[in-house]
Amino acid sequence: MAPPAATPAPASAADSFTAGLVPRDAMPVPGEPALHWSSRVHSIPDIEIELARIWAIPKRTATIEGHEEHHIAARTSVMNLVVVARRQEIGEHAAAIIQQLTGRHPSRTMIITSADPEGRSWLDASVQAYCVLPRADAAETCAEQIYIRAGGAAGRHLGAIVAPLLVHDLPVTLWWPGEPPFESAVARDLLGMADRLVVDGSTWGGDGLARLREMSAAMDRDRLSVSDFALTRQSRWREAIASVFDLPEFTQFLPAIRRVAVTYGTHDETGAPGTTNVVKPVYHVAWLASRLGMSVVRPLVPVEGARPGARPAVRAAGRPGSGGPLHRGLAGQLKAAKSEVAVVVRPIVSPMPSGTTLRVEILADRRGSELRADVTAEAETVHVHVWLDGVEALDRSFLAPRRTEIDLLADSLEAGGPDPIARETIRMAARLTGS
Amino acid sequence: MHGPAMTTTKEPAASAAPPRDPAAAPAPEAPTTARPARDGPRTIRSLRLARLAKKRERKESKALVNPLREGLRLERMPDPFAFVLFGGTGDLAHRKVVPALYQLWRTNLLPHEFMLVAIGRRPYDDESFRAEIRTALDKYSRVLPVDEQVWAAFRERIVYQHGDFNDPAMYQALTTRLEGCDAEQGTRGNRLYYLATHASSFPDIVGELGRAGLDHEMHGGGWRRVVIEKPFGRDYDSAVRLNREVGKVFRESQVYRIDHYLGKETVRNLLVFRFGNGIFEPIWNRRYVDHVQITVAESIGIEGRGSFYEETGASRDFLQNHLMQLLSLVAMEPPASFDADALRDEKVKVIRAIAPMTPEQIGREVVRGQYGRGWVAAEEVPAYREEPDVDPESETETFVAARFEIDDWRWAGVPFYLRMGKRLPKRASEIAIQFRAVPHRLFTDAGADPEPNLLAMRIQPDEGILLRFGAKVPGLGIDVRAVNMDFTYGSAFNVDSPDAYETLILDALLGDASLFTRADEVEQAWSVVTPIIDAWADGPPAEFPDYEAGSWGPKAADELLARDGIRWRRI
After folding, report:
1. Is B262-499+520-562 assigned to CATH 3.30.360.10?
2. pTM here?
3. Domains with residue ranges and CATH for chain A
4. Which of B13, B101, B402, B563 suits A157 as a labelling partner, its CA being 20 to 30 A distant?
5. CB–CB contact A239 B5 (8 Å)
6. Average pLDDT, chain A
7. Residue B67 contacts A, CB cutoff 8 Å
């Protein structure tokens, strides 16, 4: 696909920007990215020219005995990172996160925003390069960041803008903050050239499940690896749940699970289905089901009827189980090798962020013995309690510090190759919610 | 210049992706097997395939104990445990072991229910020992400054047990203390005994642990493991004796003999490089490799450890362990799996295949040296014999170089040159695989023959991998020049690598012995090195010092390679 013809963007104050090398007065501070180059252009060929110039012009590094010592900064890239930002502020937020990772995951980054879809075609690009000294004793690492705004027809053909600017032979990671329209032509173009998709399913509107199913379909259609922050955030929960079944006396209960219940927090006092994003609680069930080779007998559907005795305006919750919304959440049925497994995903009114998992309960029966595992979170700790035939058999705590978007993006970028666990979890989540 | 690409690739197509294990495959999507329809004709081949599939299925289901663990490797946290540190007041504990534990704690890789019980002869109490540890962390922690909040929680988990290593009463007190940890801190009977003491104390400590019953693993949990520092023995006989003493108390699966070189990131990467890439293994043999050079160069001297070094020397301190480990990792066959025993089986096979040397061969193919005065990094440094606690007539070697051959199908006829030295010009360790020259000179007009290809793996500093190949010099004629393709860890992964001790301690806590040395491995390595040490002891005194500090070792080391028409790589 040829790049769309583009005309200069509408004039703005930023057009008076000084182009080219940014002089640096002080020695670089380890860990702090410094702007090395900045210029502004209005067409794809001009972006390509600027990208070539960045690494051809020497930068002044020091003056020794009156002589200037020059060296050329070297680009280090381990991937192409494409960010699709629906609004400018989302793009700026993403840019700030990526700059923090320049030293850790140097990438050619393109942040694209489309605007004014019905207007004439235009393109406005800011080409920048950042250098960072990861440590005082390490070599400086530099990477490019291209901020592109595209209007009119150009904004509807983002794939045609991205394709010529990719560094060849390097993998392409597509980070799509917000709500990716997986079925749109723009998304299909971009997903088709990506190796990995990074999203945050917990920010999707409604219950997030329709988009989750679309993502699963896109993942299989485009053979994508997917990193969903919603899933990555739960790693300590998975560790805590897995740790229960490390113990030989409990491992044998794995094929005998007969009930999985996940409780999540909601701010909606009715707890009506579709009002709170439930991607995270559904991922818990999907991960367990996919790891244990379960299949879906009956997908999750809203439980009919209100909770007996529940009142709509209960708000005392801080602890799971203390609030009682009107609705009873979702229920479904899985099938393990030897038994059927009941699944419940239920809301509790809670001051915690909406959709946050508060408790995972697993119940298993084996040869007349009952195992109940209860995993809960409090502040930055995940607790595991296990009862065997009503007697407490295990009580453990895992530190689970909150992870920033920088940590989550770094995790996603570090993942590198295919992630079969995430892939199978997402597929199972889609099946579990009715795809 | 591009950095090395991350290896993200498109996921396999949904329809083409078989489940990783049968248990993880939902029934409706289960792949079809080679089994024909029940009423169809069954060929011998189909029966055999079905039998194999069943066998594989059985094997996989047996191997995967907890399917929820799959993919959680990096997130795994050890069970609750008590870390019993013998030699808690010593240099190794302060410089390496405790900073490694602190770092693991800081990065949330240790469970809440963890206690560090340090044992030493010095009369500290808990509080004064904690102050001592804080001073050590302020000096040796990998990440400074020490995080006050993290330290506040870490210090609460440190206690000190005063006593003598061969005093049975101390072990009774230790038992009481550990039972208290189980009851109050929930350490659940899991214990890691870390022997960071002088090697002469190892048999006493292990014996007393056994007599106090502290080695017994409990039914239904409560593991007991022992980590033993090097040197493990000072020759073949003493290593066998020590293994026997340890074996009387602990089972081999409970014993973790530490060689910190195996925990280094680049050394671990050697396994990934060899067995995670398909393109190198076909050329990793005598048909393509001319020779291998392994160098461990240190610019420092003996750093005040004169009495220790007088007892060991370069052969015991480096050749028997670090260099032999590097050699075995380079030369081993691909293991059947990445579990501890499969890996160590292959390493032992390599060391066993090293051709034994006669005293005459040792005289010809092993070189020892000792540094005299000289200049290193613009500073004048004393000769080894002038160092504190060193005999002025000392015969101890501070340099060793050797030419080994591995008598197996893969390596027959390929020399492996190993060298290690103190007070060399710089600190540098690397493994260099020198490939054979091209069989036929095609570019006859070129000014010089193309240099043979080289693959060098730098272990320290500037960890990375370099591949040298020939390229055409731009111009009208055909001139070939060697160019380097250089991968540096620093520019591809700008994250701090964990210290080797962090890696190894975490592995021991998780029960993964892959990077620890097994009893037969230690003995086999000693069986290669002991004849060399014996031959030197029986032979005439060496003419030491024979190399100047700041040089690349004695001339004889250069001659060792010159006889084969090659020279040491300039590092």
Report:
1. yes
2. 0.73
3. 17-230 (no CATH), 235-402 (3.30.360)
4. B13
5. no
6. 83
7. yes
